[in-house]
Write a structure and sequence with these properties.
heterodimer; A: mainly beta; four-stranded antiparallel β-sheet; 11 strands; 3% helix; B: mainly beta; six-stranded mixed β-sheet; 0% helix
Chain lengths: 115, 108
């Protein structure tokens, strides 16, 4: 049983470009949350997807958007990249209310560098 | 606003030592998670606490709801325990609010 898989693992972009990151949740999970982790900081919540809808959103600009597909996999899109978008982007997989059940699984992350 | 504060920021120990990492959280957090992050970046969930105490192997997590404080203890520490340990809280929503993490180094 595969856990949470994220792709790509590393990528380099230049300012102004757009990026798409992908996440496949653990089998049986229907909820995907995305987090941004800057160097030396704790992760920050971007948004959460359930039943192909964005359920909650953190304090991130509209340049950050997402999508969830019928198979529960998810994409995070960032437009008009800024240097400050350089970070590790983490995907967390769960069933709904996983924050309160403790059944929460994270991927290895996608490390984005913006030059 | 949910907030989580961890201490210490960095911790160095000798193999075999007993280790404690502390976490204080704000009103509104009802589920407290302890997570482990290795240098590659992946995060592993260790415990989720809403009350009491949990134990898994050499790891023990406790929570005091009245004082809004949780601790993660590692007994008989080993170099393979070296990692960043993160406390995160959830309350009223599905999002987790993370502390900045404690970088633990256990020397042989």
């Amino acid at each position: 049983d595969a856990g949470v898989t994220q792709s790509p693992t590393h990528l380099i972009k230049t300012r102004g470009q757009q990026v798409t990151l992908r996440c496949s949740p653990k089998s049986g999970h229907d909820t995907v949350s995305w987090y941004q982790q800057a160097l030396g900081q704790g992760p920050q919540f971007i948004f959460q997807y359930y039943e192909e809808e964005e359920r909650q959103r953190g304090n991130f600009p509209d340049r950050f958007s997402g999508h969830q597909f019928p198979n529960y996999s998810s994409e995070l899109n960032v437009n008009a990249l800024l240097l400050g978008d350089s970070a590790l982007y983490l995907c967390a997989s769960s069933r709904l209310a996983g924050v309160y059940t403790g059944e929460l699984f994270f991927g290895e992350g996608s490390r984005l560098t913006v030059l | 606003k949910n907030e989580v504060e961890q201490s210490p920021q960095n911790l160095t120990a000798q193999e075999g030592e007993f280790i404690t990492i502390n976490c204080s959280y704000s009103v509104g957090i009802s589920a407290l998670h302890w997570l482990q992050q290795h240098p590659g970046g992946g995060i592993v969930s260790l415990f989720m606490l809403s009350s009491g105490k949990k134990k898994h192997g050499r790891l023990i997590a406790t929570i005091n709801i009245q004082e809004k404080h949780s601790s993660l203890h590692i007994t008989a520490s080993h170099p393979r325990d070296s990692a960043v340990y993160i406390c995160a809280g959830g309350g009223g929503s599905e999002k987790l609010v993370f502390g900045k993490g404690t970088k633990l180094t256990v020397n042989p």
